[in-house]
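Service request form, structural biology core

Requester: graduate student, group of Dr. S.
Request type: structure prediction, single chain
Budget code: on file
Notes: please return the result as structure tokens.

Sequence provided:
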Amino acid sequence: MLRRGIFLAGALCALAALSGASQAQDAPQPTTIIHAGRLLADPATGRVALVQSILVDADGRVIGIEPGYVERSGANVIDQRDRFVLPGLIDSHVHLTSELGPSQFIEEVTLTPSDAAMRGAENARKTLMAGFTTVADLGAPNDSIFALRRAIAENRVPGPRIVASGAAITPDGGHADANGFAPDVVDVLRSPAACSGADACRRAVRRQIQAGADVIKITATGGVLSNTAAGVGQQLSDPELEAIVEAAHAMGRRVTAHAHGVGGINAALRGGVDSIEHGTFADAETFRLLRQGHRYLVPTMMAGWWVAQLAEQGGVLSPAQADKARQVGPALVAMARRARAAGVRIAFGTDTGVSPHGMNAREFQLLVETGFTPLQAIQMATINAADHLQLNGTAGVIAAGSSADIIAVDGDPLADVSVLMNVRLVMARGVTQKAE
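Core staff response, request fulfilled:
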């Protein structure tokens, strides 16, 4: 009996050893290792780890992080020992298929959705090279942006991961509809997502989701760049707002609202939207409503900063646009200061496309100038934005199981956010896109 027990114990140990060896062989092996001199190991706390190795597998996922500069047979090593490594950045508000300029008005009637997609591919690459590995595109022709989203996901063109709304839900004649053209031209350019009345707006939401929208973007108020002197007050009615949110939530989509005027901001929040873009004339009630539920503010200070300059330079904005820009630009700065004091959740967003593509990181400096710390600004573009876009565990962190979206810069962004304007390494979904 003793011999039999010894034999069985030995056999079990051998089986366990074989099983362990098999599991070790089955475990993903790194194809790339990044040697990081300094690593933002925990964006939530700002903890920086020194002398670390980030292991990335062939599927573009982070396997893990190990102390020291480790090597594995067959793995490609990317040396970032003299640099600061952090998660790929997230911009929660861009327009990849367009860029504001002197010819934009005429281009609305001379360019096709295919042209927009081609320009989108160019702008997506600029955005990626600037260190932004994920974006939310909030307002573009459906065919153009959904095709670009697919091409990037299939690694056919370089660009950031895209969360896309496609066309914004807007009232007939509202901010995201055709404005400033002859009536017969307006009839041709009219937005497919324009609506009037609760039922029509509910239908517009469902059709956008059917077309491929990841998120529903609405224009609750007027906007600076709509070529009409209609102001920036509420445009969608309360019943329309409620119908939009009801339809979107029933189909598993969050709703984000372009909103400047305080009446429209608060009406959108009371109607159930999940986030506010811009929020220019927000008040104490706005911040109280934003703190209810899991809501975010996306200040887009870049847009206000840029259009305020254009209004003074002339040559790009129409008189109606310039008048609104002069009001909105300075007001955004004051609002951001109040939002900081109120303690609302903030996600990083720039409204790039209003400003030139590739300049997205300028928003960090504007946020710091407003009173946020560099860490708070970086949190907005990593863990906050990932949470806002429902990408927790995938983007915004460098951790086992996350997508290998990784950037590196010279200097210390926790001391000087301007270094984020010059990103030296960009890895997106495990593929090295830039290495200087």
